């Protein structure tokens, strides 16, 4: 086997690989052995016709496709390894020359890792903000928890913020309605921000059995048909209800919740909120550190690199769908409430950041000698299996792939390195 490499534009390369005639003859033999059971020639039992006879009648071309499939994988793998190219895509294979008794020549066009000039990643100076949990935050979360255990009761008065209405509504945009603009027996807590901005405010003061008109403007972020447009809703209020808080005391809390008392509930919720706030602050700091390192580095990224990232992310979800024995469209609709086109567009918006981050992390890992030991890999496999209730770690590998798991561990190590060497501004 021999090869040559041609560097193309846009982080692509073409490897021209030559398999010598003797090696290709071995592939032809394999192809014949694979296919002979399906070949019938008069005078011979099915599958017993000599190869020379088959080639005389049908031509050696009948074995070329499978022979190529036998020859290409090993030859490509050897050439890719010897070339030293940092290949980041599956090869696009084109057969250049294939003929019995001659060298077999094919090309493999591949995407290679874009060039990156690494900036400073030690001593990065980024402030870490601390998010304060206020008494109002705690009270709001306590009330949200409290409502889960309280009964709604009808009230004979105008609706106030915090009340829960049961409504029927029909909306009109440009004089037309649709199923997306209609609802029946819909519960709406006033002040929850569940509906379109301005909708709930216009229901303050209504009574049960009132019919009212609500006028709003859809935000620009809504789906295309209504985004930014004015809408008129005809609303019928069938119920005005409020939460019955008269039963809420320490005894009720102990009997109906996982808490010992109202104070225990409040303290536990405060602790959870503080833990979440600390975690969010750390995540935001990590992102800012990474962004600072990226800003100080130089890249040569092409659209094809972004396309490759999107394809890789989509392939992960194809694996998830396959593991669930579902078609991709059904899986995305069921578990994410989205479509393939929408998910691709989402990944597209983050592609440049993710591609740059991956390049920088690989470069840092190489410079710092960061690797993943087999023990670390096995430990992570066991953690994932336990987390997702898999008895066999092979199921985890089929879902995530070894490369993906090792990549995640490397990224964690690099982030830790950047954090440990970061500097807090005075």
What characteristics describe this protein?
five-stranded antiparallel beta sheet; 11 strands
How much helicity do the residues have? 40-55%
- Low-pLDDT residue spans: none
- List the quaternary state of the chains: single chain
Q: Using DSSP, what is the number of strands?
A: 11
Q: How much is the radius of gyration in Å?
A: 32 Å
Spatial shape: elongated
The rounded distance between the terminal residues' Cα atoms is 61 Å
Q: Provide mean pLDDT, rounded.
A: 92
Helix count equals 12
Give the structural class: alpha+beta
Main beta-sheet annotation: 5 strands, antiparallel
Order of helices and strands: EEHHHEEEHEEEEEHHEHHHHHH
Strand content: 15-25%
Topology overview:
Elements: E1 2-8, E2 12-19, H1 21-35, H2 51-58, H3 64-83, E3 92-97, E4 104-111, E5 116-117, H4 135-147, E6 152-154, E7 164-172, E8 182-189, E9 211-217, E10 230-243, H5 250-256, H6 262-295, E11 298-299, H7 303-323, H8 328-336, H9 340-368, H10 374-387, H11 393-400, H12 402-420
Protein model, in words:
The protein has 426 residues and is α+β, with helices and mostly antiparallel strands. It contains twelve helices and eleven strands. The strands form three sheets. Strands 6, 7, 8, 9 and 10 form a five-stranded antiparallel beta sheet that branches. Strands 1-2-4-3 form a four-stranded antiparallel beta sheet. Strand 3 (92-97) and strand 4 (104-111) form a beta hairpin. Helix 7 (303-323) crosses helix 9 (340-368). The protein is elongated.
